[in-house]
Design goal:
The structure is a single chain. It is built from 16 helices and 21 strands. With about 575 residues, the chain is of the alpha/beta class. It is elongated, with a radius of gyration of 38 Å.
């Protein structure tokens, strides 16, 4: 649906709500000028409120070690069978374009209504030129016509038949002058222009009928205030009821609501305190603004040092956690000993909580990720750094780029060392990588293969050389080399969020992990060639840290789908 049509749909709903409140609370009250002002104000407000958007900010904490809970609203549901995406946005050549058809019908109706306004206005101008023009001292002008029309007014002109003008019926002229003085023609012109964009809305037509009635009630009230006998005036209205009416943009003396007009004349003016019922507008306006509000999510890495995974002291100590299948069931081994007790107790017994430990999780390819997630939930209680290996335990060489062996632990699913724990992550900078239990991969909601095309695509997204607003931000940063010289580099703020099902086999997690590492390894290798003139594998540790500063890697693991 086009944005303009969506805007009109919102306006239609607001008009319906406002007018319903008017009909229930104010329409029976004799507060003529007040009610007219309410209708005009709510009519204009209905077209302005959809343009008003309140932004609420919501901060979602992300544990720095990568368990990025609370990101589920960013992901489209991915079906279990084959990984199909249930976003409802899939198209097919065989699907009838209902949206395009309805949009075309809407704009056709709008164009027809605007054309009618133009033709009606042109018709009135022709009528002015064809009639006998009699200027009046009050600035109005009487247009006397030969045909037997019912009196009506438009802007400063009063249109009346020769017979009515000759009869000297002052009620008619007084009534139409009241329309002109009160500006009713301008009200109706505004209404009809807005009606052209809301022609499909029944509430808009009902509002127009009520507005036209109020204009007639007001003009009648002016006539009676000038001393006209109410019975005589009512009889004159009845006698004129057989005449033809004016068009939609005029104010006609002979109106189809004659009975209601006569009833309203006899009704006492309502006390002004009943006008307080107009306060119904306040909760309705608040509801509209709330419904039209947007929530901007700010992602923030947790400041809890226990959750950050920050390394305060490097140790040679390592803990190996293995998940093996024995007799069809998965067993957990901690440093070679099978864990027959609670996994939390088993890990607590071997991890020194006062220092940093390197934990390696080794799992068979068909291990459900839910088991690993449970282990990691315990590990997050300790300041540990986690590495992942598979059945082969072979080092992965991403994109033919070999990382320095001493720094291999850096490319786990953890932020780079030096990432500020209070770093804020905007939604724009988050790239969602999803692996479902059927081995289907997605970037956001787009199906992808782990191939060179996808690797190049991710490199372009992360580096954002075209400075696209659809890709993560980059900040031109002055970076110092080990020799003291500096260079400027567009540092990406991209954050990769990995997500999977609890039943996703570990194989797909490991393949995703390795693939994402390969993307950053290739980016860093390209940067290394530019900055130092040599490949990443030939850098010293200090030079490598320089490249890490230029191309920081932030890969986080989101909460899993429990299915």
């Amino acid at each position: 649906m086009s944005p303009f049509v969506l805007f009109e749909v919102k306006a239609a709903l607001i008009i319906a709500a406002f007018h319903l409140g008017y009909r229930l609370l104010l329409s029976r009250e004799k507060l003529l000028g007040f009610n007219r002002a309410v209708l005009l104000a709510t009519l204009c407000a209905s077209f302005l409120l959809p343009l008003c958007r309140i932004t609420f900010h919501k901060t979602v904490p992300l544990p720095a070690e990568g368990q990025a809970a609370g990101l589920t609203e960013m992901y489209a549901e991915i079906l279990e069978s084959g990984g199909a995406i249930s976003t409802g946005a899939q198209t097919s050549a065989t699907v009838f374009p209902w949206e395009d058809l309805l949009t075309a019908i809407y704009f056709t109706g709008t164009a027809a209504m605007l054309l009618k306004i133009i033709l009606d206005t042109a018709g009135i101008i022709r009528t002015i030129k064809s009639g006998r023009r009699i200027p009046q001292n009050d600035g109005t002008e009487i247009i006397v016509l030969d045909n037997g029309i019912s009196p009506f007014s438009w802007m400063k002109w009063i249109f009346i038949s020769e017979d009515d003008y000759s009869s000297g019926n002052s009620h008619i002229l007084m009534h139409e002058r009241a329309h002109i003085r009160l500006g009713h023609a301008k009200d109706m012109l505004l209404y009809n222009i807005l009606l052209a964009f809301q022609w499909f809305n029944p509430a808009m037509w009902l509002l127009g009928r009520d507005l036209r009635s109020l204009c007639e009630y007001e003009a009648d009230n002016v006539v009676l205030k000038n001393g006209t006998d109410i019975k005589e005036y009512q009889y004159s209205l009845i006698r004129k009821a057989a005449g033809a009416s004016g068009n939609s943009i005029t104010n006609s003396f002979n109106h189809s609501i004659l009975k209601n007009r006569i009833t309203m004349m006899s009704k006492s003016k309502s006390p002004m305190y009943r006008g307080l019922r107009v306060l119904y507008i306040i909760p309705l306006t608040a509801a509209v603004l709330t419904a039209n509000a947007e929530t901007k999510i700010d992602y923030k890495i947790s400041e809890n040092p226990a959750m950050s995974g920050a390394i305060t002291e490097e140790k040679d100590e390592n803990v190996l956690v293995e998940i093996k299948k024995e007799n069809g069931a998965f067993a957990i081994f901690v440093n070679g000993n099978v864990s027959t007790e609670n996994i939390s107790t088993a890990l607590t017994n071997v991890i020194d909580s006062d220092g940093s430990i390197n934990v390696t999780i080794q799992a068979e390819d068909d291990t459900p990720m839910g088991i690993i997630a449970d282990i990691k939930s315990v590990l997050r209680l300790f300041p540990v750094k986690i590495r992942y290996t598979g059945e082969s335990q072979e080092s992965y060489t991403p994109g033919q780029v070999k990382l320095p062996e001493a720094l291999i632990s850096e490319v786990s699913l953890n932020p780079d060392t030096g990432i500020s724990p209070d770093k804020s992550i905007s939604k724009r900078n988050i790239v969602v990588f999803f692996a479902n239990k059927n081995g289907k991969y997605f970037i956001h909601t787009e199906p992808r293969e782990l191939d060179a095309e996808t690797r190049n695509y991710l490199k372009k997204v992360i580096s954002n050389e075209e400075n696209s607003t659809d890709n993560p931000e980059t900040v031109m940063t002055e970076i110092r080399r080990p020799d003291g010289s500096t260079f400027s580099y567009p540092v990406s703020k991209a954050s990769i969020v990995f997500r999977c099902d609890r039943k996703t086999p570990y194989k797909y997690f490991r393949e995703s992990n390795e693939f994402l590492k390969s993307v950053y390894a290739e980016l860093r290798n390209e940067c290394s060639e530019k900055v130092f003139g040599k490949s990443l594998s030939n850098l010293s540790e200090a030079e490598y840290r320089t490249i890490v500063t230029a191309i920081p890697m932030l890969i986080m693991e989101a909460d899993m789908m429990d299915r």
